[in-house]
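Suppose you are handed a protein chain with no further information: no name, no annotation, nothing but its sequence. What can you learn? This example shows the usual starting point.
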Amino acid sequence: MDYDRIIHQYYDEDAALRRILVVHSEAVARKALHIADVHPELHLDRQFLLEAAMLHDIGICQTDAPGILCHGQSPYICHGILGAAILRKEGYERHARVCERHTGAGLSLDDIVRQNLPLPHRSLLPETMEEQVICYADKFFSKTRLDQEKTIEQAERSLAKFGEAGLERFRLWVSLFS
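A reasonable first move is to predict its three-dimensional structure. Written in structure tokens, the prediction is:
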């Protein structure tokens, strides 16, 4: 898979936004690959982790998030679903699942319905170990402070405002991946 081609296909006109996407995604990929190296017992697919981490936020260009130079039509919460559609169109179902399941610490059907989120009414929780690792790694890096890695405590504070279930999932991942 040529993830660089896909990134350039959707971000060729906007070098500043492409830089935000790539720098953020490279940080997530480094952390995910580090987890794979430290935990060989998990039998993680390193090549897939790299590719999926580089593409997990491909849908941000279609959202309205001016703080990170995104001027699309959809709410930012939709970036995972939008990215999944892009990757499915390219023929990458497994990578698409990472896109749609990495928001927060994943979103349950109950989360989506209770919060009236503009997302499909189905579970968007990460299922495979690779999906979980990328979702976890993503929680340490924002797109507004590209040069900083959050601490576990900072990542927990970011997740806490969205409910206890996601925070519990994250804490489980801390015990598995740290």
